[in-house]
DNA sequence: CGCGATCAAAAAGTCAGACTTATATGTCAC
DNA sequence: GTGACATATAAGTCTGACTTTTTGATCGCG
């Protein structure tokens, strides 16, 4: 799943990135390239490449005569999938999941509305297939199978919206859904009402009913938000 | 405003990045690091750093024995501010503005609703100040002054939402608003109805009326969408 | 004729060392 | 105290040699 450290600089990033996003080096901290290179036992060129990547994510800023300084959290590129993964793996995972769920709640209804207008016949077919898959795995502790279809469902919606910005959130949504199933322990079967809503969304999209698709999807994401509030109010 | 090419690798990126995002090198194109280094007259180390940054944006993929291949558009990190800037400067600026305006329409109402719940007294003050500034510059071809306050207004809303993901879209919104004023030529004064809506949003946020703030903001962004439809249906 | 193993070339990846440049900071005269 | 100047520091750059992975071609065998 996770990109297994492409090259040496990638391996360095895999430990340095999470360390920074976890706040292990507080904002304003100063790192020196040479010291880091020694610490990770790589050449300076490799370390420089790693720093460049961190810099492009706005996690750090490299300045002459001073070093590599960690930037304040507010400046990070929090939409970078890599940064999201690092943060989800770290300590503030709950807060991160909260932010992402809100983002999801804002985007997905709009995406569903657009999908109702622009979805191809093939996408409609996929959608109903996913919904049926969810129904089939909704009872009897088949959580993994349910999750797969749930993720696929929301991915299709986002792609069918025709908006590239929405489409690129597919990975984020997948991460959130997976996180809910895996981390926050779910013993019980999914809420039957949610399953029904998914089926209805698929119908609405097929029927080209934008407002209905949007409204139903909003109910789904509102449910996700309430779920969070119950877990961590 | 724009980051003036920090270092040599930055200067390389400033021409290579826009070239790639403009589709000058179609997906699947293969570049060789050494050749690029020669072309830009920089050392291989510098070019490698530039490639690493492009790679972190998922614009290209570097593989041994094959070279640096351009990835399909669908895989780009379209939320990276740098990528957004490059694309806005390029040929598909209209489509990009469209995508971003839709994104805005989805996010800002939700952000306004949250702002009504969480905005501090100081933020409320800023908000009304911005709204008044918009009113003051709404007549008599003071478009630049109007723009400044408009941008500030939406930035405050996004920050006051308390959601870091929303807050980070401040730059995007600023870019969209500025693009509308500058590129799509606006001769006339802004729509009085829009100005009024901003004032009302400020009021609603101060009053803590989340649903009203959300609804009013949705009207604002709907207006922006309709504006786009008129310009490019 | 097809198919798998082997081999060579190509390009990225890595490293080490020398050198350049910007800049923060301390020093000194005034 | 303030300004100009000197110095040290860490990033930035370049070069050349070497390593590693991977592709695709060649060759032998069934």
Overview of this structure, please?
The structure is a homodimer of 233-residue chains. Chain A is mainly alpha-helical and 233 residues long. Chain A folds into 2 domains: 7-75, Winged helix-like DNA-binding domain superfamily/Winged helix DNA-binding domain (Arc Repressor Mutant, subunit A), CATH 1.10.10.10; 92-231, Up-down Bundle (Four Helix Bundle (Hemerythrin (Met), subunit A)). Chain A has 11 helices and 3 strands. Chain A has helices at 7-21, 33-40, 44-56, 81-89, 93-118, 121-136, 143-160, 164-167, 170-182, 192-207, 210-231, and strands at residues 30-31, 60-63, 67-70. The first copy, chain A, has a 3-stranded antiparallel beta sheet. The longest helix of chain A is centred in the middle third of the chain and has 26 residues, at 93-118. The interface between A and B is large, with 36 and 35 residues. Chain B binds a DNA duplex (30 and 30 nucleotides) through α1 and α3.
